[in-house]
Amino acid sequence: MQALTNRAKPVDRRPMTFVERMYLPAIAKGMAITFKHIFQKKEVVSYPEQKREFSPVFRGLHVLNRDAEGRENCTACGLCAVSCPAEAITMEGAERKPGEEHLYREEKYAARYEINMLRCIFCGFCEEACPKDAIYLTETFAPSNYKRESFIYGKEDLLIPMPGEKKKA
Ligand code: SF4
Ligand code: SF4
Fold it and tell me: How far is the CA of 8 from the centre of ligand 1 (A)?
């Protein structure tokens, strides 16, 4: 079969010479490469002591935003979920009751809002689709975990704290 590129290298099937069978030249060559790399710039980062700089266009974990008065911006319109190519977002809407005007900006709000971070591909489409400035992707990333269910982030994980309130650990 004809090769599509000229990158293929034919395998050398000649019997090994006496010097090759001693392996010493190959060991010396390998050690030379190892020593050469000792004095070269390290390409690894000792995380978590050292952290790499993020690209200016990095997209990480989501947050649900509040307005200047601390009310939730999200109106559970579902546009973020519809635009999500990974189908990572689920939500349940609810009607705002009298007396809850200080909690929710509009008549409808997301009683439940979840993002499955294992499905999310951090494309940012949800942020672009949101007409209420309610969802943003930040520069932090999901910490590692042993349980799959820990990667389903609920509203309590995503919503930014009320002004003066600390986020739960
Ligand atoms: S960043 Fe992309 S994949 Fe992740 S939840 Fe938003 S739209 Fe879905
Ligand atoms: S985050 Fe934005 S797009 Fe998604 S449901 Fe809430 S208001 Fe609609």
Answer: 40
